[in-house]
Structure to design on (408 residues):
DNA sequence: CGATACCAAGCAAGCGCTTGGTTTGTAAAT
DNA sequence: ATTTACAAACCAAGCGCTTGCTTGGTATCG
């Protein structure tokens, strides 16, 4: 199952907006603006201009500005949960599964959905407390994927540190790559993945 | 040279405001509010109320709201550069120096100056481009400390991955601890440091 | 014909910051 | 020891602007 097929399945289930639809384009522009300028600095007028409508017309699609932020986050989580599960299912062996997870997360952060992922990481606080809890619950689903793989690698002695701690250290280091890594450079995503595995002592 | 002595030396050099002074208290409250609510969400009225003055009176101490953010960041960098240098100087051997750097950064992020450090990490974009460059230059000074130690560990074969990459991965994982690690819990800062060293394969 | 998507205009509230004047702390002059 | 002088710290009020969002009406299309 490739990335396009995964996306289409999610669209069919109405978990993610079709990229071509008005709602889909709006969310894409929102993700870009929220990442570049931050949620608070982005005005509804900026966002409306980016999609070529009047600011008031936004509220035909979303009840509030916060609902747009939440939708960006929720759809991103749904997409990435599916991508992670596919990555982990395709790889054989726990080292390979971990490598697949790392590469998948790096692709999410630095690839096409990177804008939305960055928003997910850095725009937390702009969500109301209730919305935060909702998003957090969704996120836990794919955290479980990591913990299973890391748990087995820990029991086999290949990873000495505590799985929970390792996952959290990785969350930080992988999402932080958005601030310094640029896919166009001389190091590619695959090499970066290797470097992460190396730094964990999982390649010799 | 302990932490208090370092702080006093910086205050004497006017690189950091005295914690008891009006300016010092203002910056401390600003750091707390900027971390908790974000720079954009924090209003000058919130900040003024937190230090017990009128909002207009803030502008007697700082020309603009942004100048307050910048001051928080600049003073934090000065303080932490000094702390890092002390940590690295006191430790003997490169593994011990790396451990000292990690622990010092974890203390900065999660300890007394944690609020300001979180601001430094997460409130980037709210600074004007010129101010960003200024802050970046100051930060490079202490990045050099890390690269020297990591470079030696790399040449000796103790750290296989590229020093630049390792430093950046560590920047992410260490600053991210602010979102999940709480010093009050059952794992202390020293144990967390051990876990980081473990995850790098630097303890057996 | 009815639903969906949009525009034009603007409201109420909140924003950073300014202004003009008063209090407070300090130190030299009497 | 008291007065004088002056700057630093602060208050009360509010200006001009931007913000998220609302309203009432108009295209567009199956």
């Amino acid at each position: 199952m490739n990335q396009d097929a995964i996306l289409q399945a999610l669209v069919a289930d109405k978990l993610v907006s079709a990229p071509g639809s008005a709602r889909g384009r709006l969310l894409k522009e929102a993700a870009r603006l929220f990442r570049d300028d931050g949620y608070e600095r982005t005005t509804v007028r900026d966002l409306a201009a980016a999609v070529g409508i009047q600011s008031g017309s936004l509220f035909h699609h979303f009840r509030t500005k916060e609902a747009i932020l939440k939708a960006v986050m929720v759809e991103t989580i749904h997409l990435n949960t599916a991508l992670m599960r596919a990555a982990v299912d395709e790889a054989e062996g726990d080292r390979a599964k971990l490598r697949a997870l790392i590469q998948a997360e790096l692709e999410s952060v630095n690839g096409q959905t990177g804008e939305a992922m960055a928003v997910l990481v850095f725009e937390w606080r702009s969500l109301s407390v209730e919305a935060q809890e909702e998003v957090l619950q969704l996120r836990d689903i794919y955290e479980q994927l990591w913990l299973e793989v890391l748990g087995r690698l820990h029991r086999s002695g290949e990873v000495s540190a505590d799985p929970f701690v390792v996952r959290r250290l990785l969350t930080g280091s992988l999402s932080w790559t958005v601030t310094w890594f640029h896919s166009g450079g001389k190091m590619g995503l695959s090499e970066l993945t290797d470097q992460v595995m190396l730094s964990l002592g999982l390649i010799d």
Residues 43-45, 55-56, 58-59, 64-65 of chain A lie near DNA strand D (CB under 10 Å from a C1').
